[in-house]
Structures are given as C-alpha cells and as structure tokens.
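seq:
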Amino acid sequence: MSVVSPAIDPAHVAVTVPVADSRYPVDLMYVEMVDGAYIPIGLRKPEGAGPFPLILFATGNGGGGMAMLRDHIDTKSWTQDRLLDEGYAVAWMRYRAEVDYAYDRIGKLIQSGRQQRQLFNRGPLEYEDAIAVAEYVKTLGSIDGDRLGYIGVSHGGEMALKIASEYHGFKAFVASEPASHEFLRLRPDDTAHVDPKTGLLNVEKMLMREAAKVRPRITEAVARARIAPIDTPFFVQGRDTDELQGIFRVSYDLLHEMGKNAIWNSYDHPLHGFIFPEREPGGSYRPDAVQSQAFADTLAFFDKYLEA
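struct:
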C-alpha cells in the first residue's frame, strides 16, 4: 500500500496568508519548545531571498495561542511593516502564560533525564519560549542567525531582561515599558495585594510612578546579580504618565550603573504599548508624531546593532 505524503509536513506546519493593506504576507507556523510543546509564531520577510536580520515581537502576558497571534498581526502590524520596508524580517510570537513569581521562587531551568526522556526541575516559563523561538529561526535559510533583535512591551519588556540575563543569542533588545517588578524583586506597597480567592498577587492597580519610590523597594542585590551577566545592548523606553514609570526607569538605571550598554528615552503618549500603533476601527493606521518618533528611535537603535 502506498503512502500519500501530506500537503503540509506535520513536523513543520506553515501556512502563508496575506496581511491586510500590506504587500508582506505572514507565514503562520508552530515552533517546538524545549519541553516538546508547540507555540505559534507569525514570520514575515522582506522581498528577496535573504538572509535577513530578524526582530522578534512580544507584548504583554502569554496565552491566547494562534487566535491572539492573528489578532496582533491584523491590528498591530504598522511597526512590523515599517521594519520590513527597511529590510528586516519580523515575527510576532505567542508564548505560555506567566506563572506568578515562578521565576523568582524556583530559579534557573535545569534539564536532565529519566527513562531516556526529559526531566526538568520546573516547567519551562514564557521567556524560555522566546529563547526557543530564537534558536529555531536561526535554522531558517532566509534568516541571518547572527543578527537577531527583540522588542517587548510591558511583560514582554520584562521578558527581555530575563532572556538577556541567561541567553546571549540576541544582538539588541528594546524593552518598552518593561513591567520588571519580578526581575527586580520589588516589594509592592498597598496599591498591590494578594487576591484572597487565588492567593496570587494582584498588581493591576499598583502605583509605582517615581523611581525614588521604586528604588528602595527593589531587592538590590538580587537585581544586580541578575543584571550582571547581561552583555547585549538595551534601549529601555518609558512612558511619562504610566503608573509603572518608576519601574521602567529603575530598570534602566541599574543597567547604566552597572556599565551595561543601555540607553533611555521616555515618551508622552496616552497608549500603553505606544510603540505598536493599533489599527483604528475604520481599518487604517494613524500613528501620531510621538509614535513616529519612537519608531524612528527604535529603528536607529536596531540599525546600529543589526546593520539591516
């Protein structure tokens, strides 16, 4: 009996679909993580054969799977299209949901084996999914694995610090509004509380606007130990009116004080995640002057270290 080859290789699922109002389609695919689970990414490339430098995109907490990935592609692609115009490949990625303070409580992932299979000291975390994606895209012939960048917003920005502390496969990080309270081991005030229903820390209304308020509340020795291994350039972006602006600033201050290659800029904009302008209900993108300037600053940073 003959075996018919499937139209799609089950081990390398990839579906190419158009992106609204763009000449750059997206390859929707699933990438294997360190534990054998799969997460979705949406890879887009400039015209031509490459190899291209690539920037990975991350925003907020994880979860949502392919549906959320496609929503990001449909509604937050302005920044990606501008980078594609400049010769960069780009990829949105989803990742597993944040596990409350597991990074802080358990520490570095240790891999071993049992009965010829994998054994871990804990489950992989969301920032380790980003590392797995980075390692995967390096195997693609169209991507220059020596020129990878990363741009993360909010929790995605904190992930940048966690990644850089343990992994050196990226050449440049943009941490935009990095909610890095766990990385800094911040002791919240009474604007954050443990939810009695879940036992998890609720930081939705945490107010940490001033660096002077944040600095005495971090665990300085722990934060410095985590920053010490970082050797990748960082562009930390703040937002003037954000409730966590003090955390953003202290994240930069520590990098700078420890002699790391880091720059800072803060922007006066009402949108959390301003670096990713959102498609308006009418169907078009209308980035304002602040967003355009933030993109120009971001592009200049990546150009300096990735040489697109």
